[in-house]
Amino acid sequence: MRDRTPRSVTLVLDENLSGHKVLAGLQAAGIPAKMQTELMNRGLPDEEVLCRLAGHPDYFLLSKDSDFHRRPAAKAALIRHGIGAFVITAHKDKTATQLVELVTHAWPRMLRCTHNHSRPFVAKILADGSVEVVR
């Protein structure tokens, strides 16, 4: 379903991506981003993280945990709470700078995805910066 309502988009970097270099790089590139730990305590189960993000309709999870949305409890919570999530699939051996470059390259496509797909959704960010919705 297409959502033509203008929307603010803020990426919430999950714990496995919450390095200060990644956050600072995204913000320097003009991409609104926050660390998950700014919103909640460290170490929460995925289901709890998704529940807490549900109260923020402009927040979209950014992760490199490529299988979180396949785990039954996390998938159910993602759907139940209407979360939009982006997963970086090409992260192996990438530095923080390279991750920032990849997300910056993908950013226009990510924005388009948030406007063209209703939540819940999970979209993969591929090595070439393309964005592919998988759910």
Give an overview of the whole structure:
The structure is a single chain. With 135 residues, the protein is of the alpha/beta class. It has a single domain (10-133), classed as Rossmann fold, CATH 3.40.50. It has five helices and six strands, in the order βαβααβαβαββ. Strands 2-1-3-4-5-6 form a six-stranded mixed beta sheet. Strand 1 (10-13), helix 1 and strand 2 (33-35) form a beta-alpha-beta unit. The two termini are 12 Å apart. Residues 1-6 have low confidence and may be disordered.
Q: From N to C, what is the helix and strand string?
A: EHEHHEHEHEE
Arrangement of strands in the largest sheet:
2-1-3-4-5-6
Give unreliable regions as ranges: 1-6
From the 3D structure, determine the CATH topology.
Rossmann fold
CATH architecture classification name: 3-Layer(aba) Sandwich
Reported for the largest beta sheet, the result is: 6 strands, mixed
**CATH top level label:** Alpha Beta
Radius of gyration: 13 Å
Q: Total strand count, please? A: 6
Q: Which key phrases capture this entry?
A:
single chain, 135 residues, alpha/beta, Rossmann fold, six-stranded mixed β-sheet, 19% strand, globular
Summed up, what is this model?
It contains 5 helices and 6 strands, in the order βαβααβαβαββ. With 135 residues, the chain is of the alpha/beta class. Helix 3 runs parallel beside helix 4 (72-81).
Write the layout of secondary structure elements.
Elements: E1 10-13, H1 20-28, E2 33-35, H2 36-39, H3 46-53, E3 59-63, H4 72-81, E4 84-88, H5 96-116, E5 121-125, E6 131-133
